[in-house]
Amino acid sequence: MNIEDIQKLSTIETPAYVVDTRLLEKNLKLLREVQDKSGCKILLALKGFSMHQAFPLVGNYLEGITSSSLFEARLGYEYMGKEVHIYAPAYKDSEIDEIMSYCGHMVFNSVAQYHKFRDKALDLGIECGIRINPEYSEVETEIYDPCATNSRLGTTLQNLEDADLEGLSGLHFHTMCEQNSDTLERTLKVVEEKFSHLFDKIKWINFGGGHHITRPNYDVEKLINIIKKFKEKYNLEVYLEPGEAIALNTGYLVAEVLDIVKNNMNIAILDTSAACHMPDVLEMPYRPEIENGFLSSEKEYTYRLAGHTCLAGDVIGDYSFEKPLKVGDKLIFKDMAHYTMVKNNTFNGVNLPSIMVMDDNDITLVKSFNFDDYKSRLS
Length: 379
Ligand SMILES: *Cc1c(COP(=O)(O)O)cnc(C)c1O
Prior knowledge:
Blueprint: H1 3-9, E1 16-20, H2 21-38, E2 41-45, H3 55-59, E3 64-67, H4 70-79, E4 83-87, H5 93-102, E5 105-108, H6 111-123, E6 127-131, H7 157-160, E7 170-172, H8 181-195, E8 204-206, H9 220-234, E9 237-240, H10 244-247, E10 251-263, E11 265-270, H11 274-277, H12 280-283, E12 294-295, E13 301-306, E14 315-321, E15 330-334, E16 354-358, E17 363-367, H13 371-375
Parallel strand pairs: 1-16, 2-3, 2-9, 3-4, 4-5, 5-6, 6-7, 7-8, 8-9, 11-13
Antiparallel strand pairs: 1-10, 10-11, 10-15, 12-14, 13-14, 16-17
């Protein structure tokens, strides 16, 4: 980060998520290039990043959004207004009409769900797909592995056999998580082996999300070549629907040191919380990077950084610094635009971080939260 941005971020009211629209646009430009060179269409998966203030910008580069619920579908329809896709493990009768009023493409998780809603969808001109489970993935963390034993996500080849697929226009698989294009290549090989007998019956195939396209060592050329080859071979429209790759490395969570306590080591209590504001730190789990923060003991002053909730395990991690921390210091957690705002919560009555955007000129407040936001969900 350049020194000016660090200084600007150190003056804001905390806690706050700050999305740098310059970095977001840089990601979007790369994703546009992938689409232009490969002929695929890329959708934003709202599950990872739903900050609708940025949807007009995203819509300048991507073809639309994909959703996994009624609310996400509606958000994409109302705030971007391009293609709206949906996939959910199952749809509710009470929501299906409204969902269908927003979506041009619907992916069903099972043949039974497809049969249940097929006539209604086809009458409305909605293109229907089925999510397949190729029973091949390279995801090592069990809770992120859609192909784990007994997974409910997607229909296996065995469960597709002899199924009536009349009216179907697409297939969908989502088996990747933060992976490179070599994983896609190996996955696609399995998908072709198992499911290519269906490819002449459909118009499109969706390769899901988990493509880490915008990270520095991602092999973009390989991805482009894989898609081009696939499209030439089967004459299918190809969709990708990454979430994380859109907002990867485009934002921060800025927090302030509230107190420093000692119990064998120095512990800094912050005005943010792993449990409330960056739940993936506990769930994945992973260690976020901090501007000017280093591995424990790498520099002279080491602190355990912890949240201000009452959960004993609300700990972000141990970090060292070149100078001692003091009350009132600001800390800048990196890569906090995706899977944060969409997952945060007000556990312990802790307020939600504000949402801000940053560009060449300034940092602007988009939204702040208050007692009513907290209260309104509780009675
Ligand atoms: C989570 C998810 C995505 C987006 O995944 P990322 O890892 O954020 O790219 C896309 N499609 C489906 C079906 C998903 O469940």
